[in-house]
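Q: I have 324 residues here and want to know how they pack in 3D. Can you give me a structure?
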Amino acid sequence: MILLRNFSLFGALFSVVVIALGAWTRLVDAGLGCPDWPGCYGFVTFPTSEADIAIAESRYPSFPYEIDKVIPEVVHRYFAASLGLIAIGMVFIAFRKTSDKFLQFVSAFLLFFICCQGLFGYLTVSLKLLPIIVTGHLFGGFITLSLFSFIFLKAANFKFLHYIDIKKYRGLAFICLVVLFFQIFLGAWTSTNYASLACPDFPTCQGTYLPEMDFKSGFNLKQEIGPNYLFGLLENPARVAIHYSHRITALILTALMLILIGCLWFTNAAPLASTLGLVLLLQISLGIMNVVYVLPLYIAIAHNLIAAMLLLVTLLVNYLAWKK
């Protein structure tokens, strides 16, 4: 169990890095930094010499070589691929070193899911940033983190956590987790459709609390992309609808989280309640800063990372609430 615990912990930490790299790739518009997959312009890594760059551009004349976009894409690919190696090691350990059938199943499912993530990475490039594929790929990074973290908690089986009794709040904790996952998906959909700055003011949007919105186009999951979806094809009312929905869901999630924090505060899980409150406050602040300061790269990446941290804390609350 100790070896599986260590591998899963490393996998969870590595997943956070991959989420950050994925956000970086997306925010610098490097999703098509390499027009092919798994190579880059036909190279194993990426071309560096003038001769190789000339070959690359002759192979893909519609995609001019931009080193500032190639590097984030290639780095993200290799880090993401490394997660697969970690998952393979965990499956081997789970089946050879443990007799826990449930951990064996979850470890095998994690490896399968990472393979699916690789497929989504390929489809992201081959379908030229089709929004539903890119969103699914970004969202899948958070699912991967959740699976690594769950295996870690099960394998570690920390004794001191057994004294925390919050079973009566399991329903509320689960609702918070579901809404948080939905909010993360909306955040990915917002980024995918270039809607992060559709509302350039706060707390209003387009100078009003009820701006013009086109939900039908904004949440059309079967968008046609044309040559590619770089920089998006939606009209502004559709992007406003996406951004506004992300804000409204954030308010709902905040209200639910505050109720959960209030409930936990009066139990022996009060330190966990404080942690959840601090991470929630930081995430809200980063979201507002993204709008006010016009989506600075490092603040936007931090917004993704703190979303991952908020997910981890909420997962821990659910683990404790639902443990036998």
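Q: Anything worth noting?
A: The mean pLDDT is 94. The chain is about 70% helix and 0% strand.
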